[in-house]
Amino acid sequence: MSNTNYPNEEIQLYFRASSVTFHFHRLFFLSLLINFNMATTVLEAPRYTQLNVRVYQHNGSLLAALEVPIDPRDRYVFAEMLYRYCSSIFIFPDEDKWAIFKLRANTTPGATLRPSGRSLVNPGNYMVLEKNRNPTTVDLTTNCAPRRVRTLDTHTQSQGQSERDPLQATFRNTLRQRDNCCVITGQTRATTYERPFLGGYRQYIIDTRPDSDIGESRLYSAQNELLLSADIHAQYDEFQLGIDPDSGYKIIVFGADPAKMGRTRLRSSAQNGTDGVCPELLRWHLRMCLYKSLKANVEPQKIWEEDLGENPMGSTLEQSDAAERMEVELFTRLGSFVA
């Protein structure tokens, strides 16, 4: 009886072994196929090649890009900061399940970029996936930085208003007493620029001085102002550099930084005490920098002409974005009087 069962048992063992071998080969080829598909993912190029940190979606579309210094000694953007900055421009189905992975040379995900600790972000390609490495859908916010109108001689104009307006005079004197120099570079030359933020953050200003000193809207509070040199003011106004109050008031430069301002910090005079600049205003400004400079391949904003000719109203209304420019022009010209 036992002799007749041996062939059946051998046949059963053979088919079991064949089944295991088949499933093994199937899994092996599936893994090869997955790796092949990922390895052949075409990564979208940034608009500017100097942006050497590039964050991609699983399909190869570029989500975010920024420039960090080539010299490792000059780098100052930590992983925690990159996660926080990406959170400002990314929209996820589930905010708590994503992570950033370093991409290998064959575009497959490697090690996780951990937001904790003191790891610096190095140049390279990265990919946003779920924490379990599954693909996730990422949308970019439609928010964008506000557009600016460049005036021909803002410094002279500001000084002239200060001489005529007691609020402006008090504002300028308070600012210079607090900072005495550019709060980013430390320059003490006379080309400093004093002007309050023209933002809607009145609820964050806790200055208790009377309206006669800071205005009913608190626009001229020391908490709503920075003293900047003329060249730094231009970069700040164009959202080319920001200040991160959640990283020790570190200066963040979006682009080339030959002066190595990045990783330096806002002067302590502007941070401390009841007259220190409001952190929420700095967070708002930094967020505008991220909208303009971190979002991938954002269309550059058209520069508005300063000289509108003999008929500025007519020239403005002829433009395709007339409504937006009219709003910005009015706010730029009249905002300081709403105090």
TrEMBL record:
Family annotation (InterPro entries): HNH_nuc
Domain HNH nuclease intervals: 208-244
A Pfam family hit: HNH_2
UniProt name for this protein: HNH nuclease domain-containing protein
